[in-house]
Write a structure and sequence with these properties.
Strand order of the largest sheet: 3-5-6-4
Radius of gyration: 22 Å
Number of strands: 6
Number of helices: 6
Structural class: alpha+beta
Length: 195
């Protein structure tokens, strides 16, 4: 009787320990992910708040960006693909562009008055501060970071491959929506992409 109770106690304790460790790992992962997002947004929005020189072009202050999980998903997919297949390019091995990947993530342009997307990539940097410093000292990357048309961002880092995807969408006003429904406003949809 005592031996059976000891076995139940032992296996019950192991089960409880496994559940506890799983929960602890999930919480730690969430804290790490939240810290990653916050640190990136802090770096990006500090630069946007101040304005900066992108090469020979001064980019004035721009509104802050917010985090978008769909853009993060697009960035993660591309960072993972580059890491697993050992290449470095805005064009995926499957031929898809940044705008293709962003649209596939669910960040689409249908129903919006304006739509723009862009992407920064980097390889080899060891920290958010290091990759941001590199992007801010590269004219094209810096101009993406400072682009006032971008309103949202999602970033991922896998095995020292960094992908930063930007998006900006502007919804139709209620008045414009009425005009569209009545047929007095004609829509011409065009996808815009910046790399």
């Amino acid at each position: 009787m005592c031996l059976i109770d000891m076995k139940r106690l032992f296996f019950g304790g192991i089960t409880a320990l496994i559940i506890f460790l799983s929960c602890t790992a999930a919480v730690a992962q969430r804290i790490t992910k939240d810290h990653f997002k916050k640190e990136f947004l802090d770096h990006i929005n500090l630069a946007r708040r101040k304005g900066c020189n992108c090469g020979h072009t001064f980019m004035p202050p721009a509104p802050p960006l917010t985090w978008n999980d769909q853009l993060e998903d697009a960035a993660r997919g591309h960072a993972l693909d580059m890491s697993e297949r050992s290449y470095f390019s805005h064009t995926g091995k499957n031929g898809k562009s940044a705008s293709d990947r962003i649209i596939l993530s669910g960040y689409n342009y249908k129903g919006y008055k304006s739509y723009t997307v862009g992407e920064n990539i980097a390889q080899g940097q060891m920290s958010i501060a290091e990759v941001m410093n590199g992007w801010l000292h590269s004219e094209g990357h810096c101009m993406n970071l400072m682009n006032p048309s971008f309103k949202e961002v999602g970033v991922s880092q896998i095995d020292h491959y960094w992908v930063q995807d930007f998006g900006g969408r502007e919804a139709f006003s209620p008045e414009e929506q009425k005009m569209i429904k009545s047929g007095r406003y004609r829509l011409i949809q065009k996808e815009v992409s910046r790399h």
